[in-house]
């Protein structure tokens, strides 16, 4: 007998990330090839025709795991009994903008969706916020769902940054992605994030070597590598005139896959989740940490007590300060937004 369907919501489903995400959820990549899935696709009324086009294409994919698709343009229908919510729908940045420039426009969406989650979804619903500024949007969403859905069910996506870091290290060392383990993205999904390889390892032949030794280029680790990962989103926008979509959709699916099934033994992933005060990060801030996940309970745990040198402490302080400022601006914008 097949298990009960998982009901997954994708917001912004008519947009570019939405288009790349739905196929991975529908074809079993995220929840497994034996797990039936019901997809709920939300977009704004102006996008209803292209949303309908996505539904038609999903039908044409003839997927055994996809047992239902609903296309909706209101939050009440969208958030009904959801198990997993991929909150993608938001304005993307354009060339020359910082992600926090989107705050005033996008924070209202996440206030409203936090309320809808509280009203219509399950207390167990797990949420990934992709729409930028992702950490702060997730903070707002969790705030307005509080009392019904625990804050620990809210996360923001830094998995794209994590994957970018893995790829840069693999390219630098002439290894494959599977050889690189335990990079970390600390902090905000922004230009202040701290991509860190201090605790990473690399398989070289039959040996496992720490990343600093394998890379043998401290200047690159502490400068070029960090800025490449920090600025990757802006470089993609400059080249495509659109923000990352294929890689963002893949990362969102990696994030939820690992939340659902758990992380591999001895490995962690980066996820922005509410701080419990670890590493001195103010409690409740949605901050990217290294986490392990137990697939049975679907609970994440922050990897504790990794030693941080002065270089790391300084970088972490910068991104923390930015997140505190964004949080304060967002709270102010929410007070002003009469939703
Ligand atoms: N966290 C991360 O690593 C990344 C985040 N992003 C962010 O993801 C978001 C989406 O990016 P794209 O898909 O490229 O944008 P897009 O403009 O192609 O699609 C966004 C979709 O959201 C819809 N939308 C807007 N307001 C909505 C609402 N209130 N409810 C439901 N749908 C709504 C729009 O109609 C549109 O169809 C942007 O904010 C972008 O900056 C993008 C890449 C990586
Ligand atoms: O850079 C952007 O605005 C889109 C994004 O978040 C990314 O590609 O990391």
TrEMBL record:
The reaction(s) this protein catalyses: (S)-malate + NAD(+) = oxaloacetate + NADH + H(+)
Domain Lactate/malate dehydrogenase N-terminal: 8-146
Gene Ontology biological process terms, A to Z: malate metabolic process; tricarboxylic acid cycle
EC number: 1.1.1.37
Keyword terms of this UniProt record: NAD, Oxidoreductase, Tricarboxylic acid cycle
Residues holding NAD(+): 12-18, 43, 106, 130-132
Pfam families (UniProt xref): Ldh_1_C, Ldh_1_N
Annotated substrate binding sites: 93, 99, 132, 164
Single GO MF descriptor: L-malate dehydrogenase (NAD+) activity
InterPro entries assigned to the protein according to its UniProt record, in alphabetical order: L-lactate/malate_DH, Lactate/malate_DH_C, Lactate/malate_DH_N, Lactate_DH/Glyco_Ohase_4_C, Malate_DH_AS, Malate_DH_NAD-dep_euk, Malate_DH_type2, NAD(P)-bd_dom_sf
Lactate/malate dehydrogenase C-terminal domain ranges (all copies): 158-330
Active site per database record: 189 (proton acceptor)
HAMAP family the UniProt entry points to: Malate_dehydrog_2
Family under the similarity heading: Belongs to the LDH/MDH superfamily. MDH type 2 family.
PANTHER family, alphabetized: MALATE DEHYDROGENASE (PTHR23382)
NCBIfam families assigned: MalateDH-SF1 (TIGR01759), MDH_euk_cyt (TIGR01758), PRK05442.1 (NF003916)
Protein name: Malate dehydrogenase
Organism from which the protein derives: Diploscapter pachys
Lineage: Eukaryota, Metazoa, Ecdysozoa, Nematoda, Chromadorea
């Amino acid at each position: 007998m097949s298990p009960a369907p998982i009901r997954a919501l994708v917001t912004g489903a008519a947009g570019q990330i939405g288009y790349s995400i739905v196929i991975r959820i529908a074809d079993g990549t995220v929840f497994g090839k034996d797990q039936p899935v019901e997809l709920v696709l939300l977009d704004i009324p102006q996008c209803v025709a292209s949303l309908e086009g996505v539904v038609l294409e999903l039908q044409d994919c003839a997927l055994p795991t996809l047992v239902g698709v609903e296309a909706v343009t209101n939050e009440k229908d969208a958030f009904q009994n959801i198990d997993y919510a991929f909150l993608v729908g938001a304005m993307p940045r354009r060339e020359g903008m910082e992600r926090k420039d989107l705050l005033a426009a996008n924070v209202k969406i996440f206030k409203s969706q936090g309320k809808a989650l509280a009203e219509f979804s399950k207390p167990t619903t797990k949420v990934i916020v992709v729409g930028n500024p992702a950490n702060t949007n997730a903070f707002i969403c969790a705030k307005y769902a509080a009392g019904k859905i625990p804050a620990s069910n809210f996360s923001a996506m830094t998995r794209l940054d994590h994957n970018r870091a893995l790829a840069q290290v693999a390219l630098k060392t002439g290894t494959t992605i599977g050889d690189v383990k335990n990079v970390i993205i600390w902090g905000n999904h922004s230009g202040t994030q701290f991509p860190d390889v201090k605790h990473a390892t690399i398989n070289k032949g039959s040996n496992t070597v720490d990343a600093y030794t394998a890379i043998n280029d401290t200047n690159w680790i502490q400068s070029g590598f960090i800025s490449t990962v920090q600025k990757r989103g802006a470089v993609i926008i400059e080249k495509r005139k659109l923000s990352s979509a294929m890689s963002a959709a893949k990362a969102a699916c990696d994030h939820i896959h690992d939340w659902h099934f758990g992380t591999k033994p001895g490995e962690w992933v980066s996820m922005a989740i509410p701080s419990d005060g670890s590493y001195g990060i103010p409690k409740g801030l949605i901050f990217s940490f290294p986490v392990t996940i137990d697939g049975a309970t679907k609970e994440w745990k922050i990897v504790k007590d990794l030693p941080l040198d002065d270089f790391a402490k300084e970088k972490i302080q910068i991104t923390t300060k930015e997140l505190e400022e964004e949080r304060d601006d967002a709270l102010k914008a929410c007070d002003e937004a009469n939703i």
